[in-house]
Specification:
With 158 residues, this protein is mainly α. Helices cover 80% and strands 0% of the residues.
Length: 158
């Protein structure tokens, strides 16, 4: 369990990338202002999931593999739900590419979190470390890049 907990520490890096970041449009669909209002609560949910991942990592040492498996499965479900909410959002044409990239990255993160859960269930520290590395080094960076692109485009249109 200790090896698994140590392997999950790298998730903290992913959590910080998930939680970091902090007008009308000429395209079809809603205005940029309307999109910004609709996107803001979803963006907050993305940050909340990132913070929850960080909390899960901080508390991992005190949990059993079964508890870790349950917790990371729940985080996976949350990321998947946020991705679905994002996909359902009415979006101006100018934001479609960035929004699709963000939804895809959230889906990837959800799958990585599920892989961590499965590894914890199996007591497989090596698999947990691999999934954690993917989450921190690939998925979270894609999420950050897509969020920043959306925020930059919203700011430019304001």
């Amino acid at each position: 369990m200790r090896r698994l907990a140590l392997a999950l520490v790298a998730v903290l890096v992913a959590a910080s990338a998930l939680s970091a970041c902090g007008g009308s449009s000429t395209s079809t669909g809603p205005s940029t202002s309307d999109y910004q209002k609709s996107f803001a609560p979803i963006d907050q949910r993305i940050k909340d999931v990132g913070n929850s991942v960080g909390d899960a990592v901080v508390n991992a040492k005190s949990k059993s593999n079964t508890e870790l498996a349950t917790e990371f499965a729940g985080l996976s479900a949350q990321a998947k739900t946020v991705a679905a909410s994002l996909t359902a959002l009415d979006v101006p044409d100018a934001f479609k590419t960035q929004q699709a990239a963000l939804a895809s990255a959230l889906g990837d993160a959800s799958r990585s979190l599920q892989s961590i859960s499965a590894a914890a269930s199996a007591g497989n520290a090596k698999a947990a470390a691999a999934a954690t590395l993917k989450l921190g080094a690939v998925d979270s960076l894609k999420i950050k890049k897509a969020r920043e692109a959306i925020e930059k485009q919203i700011s430019a249109a304001s």
